[in-house]
Amino acid sequence: MTPETGKRAPAMAPEDRRRMIVRTVLPLVVEHGREVTTAQIARAAGIGEGTIFRVFQDKDELPLAERLREAVGALTAHPRRMGAARRHPVEGRNRKSVTGDSRRESYDAMHSAVRELFVPDATRLRLPVEKAASLFLSMLFAQSGPLPGAPDPPR
User: Fold this and answer.
1) pLDDT tens, residue by residue, 62-76
2) CB within 8 A of 109, min separation 6: which ones?
3) Residue 54, Ramachandran bin (φ over 0: left; ψ between -120 and 50: alpha; else beta)
């Protein structure tokens, strides 16, 4: 049962449920980092916490490849969401820039979220987590030019 409605979440195949949960996690990781709780994930997904534990042992159990595939979908949709938010602002939803450089802040938030995706597998990686996250973002956005707010590449 979901805490908000007191009703059971609609039936889904386990793989569909897993994908839905993974899609829900990335924005929460951007906002809360590794401190995101299963309760927050469940609320955002509209499911009970027990549902999470029926498809995952814990929030770090997702395989790296699956986490990165879901990140690609979320991150490639990010510029479209940002454009839509500018065209159709929702009161109270537009976050003010802390530093005055909202593009840099957006990049930093994406980098931080992607970095967190690599953390559970840090011991298996050949690169430090920080570099793996930067490389992942660079490859993801290489087709469309430089990522808005990203630091200039070394010369």
Assistant:
1) 677 777 877 887 777
2) 30
3) alpha
CA distance 42 to 28: 11
CA atoms within 13 A on the CB side of 107: 18
Task: Please answer whether residues 131 and 154 qualify as being in contact, where contact means their C-beta atoms are separated by less than 8 angstroms.
Answer: no
Query: What mean pLDDT comes out for the span 28-52?
Result: 84
pTM of this structure: 0.52
Domains of the chain: 1-61 (1.10.10.60), 64-89+97-144 (no CATH)
DSSP 38-81: HHHHHHHHTS-HHHHHHH-SSTT-S-HHHHHHHHHHHHHHHHHH
Residue closest to 74 by CA, chosen among 102, 106, 110, 46: 110
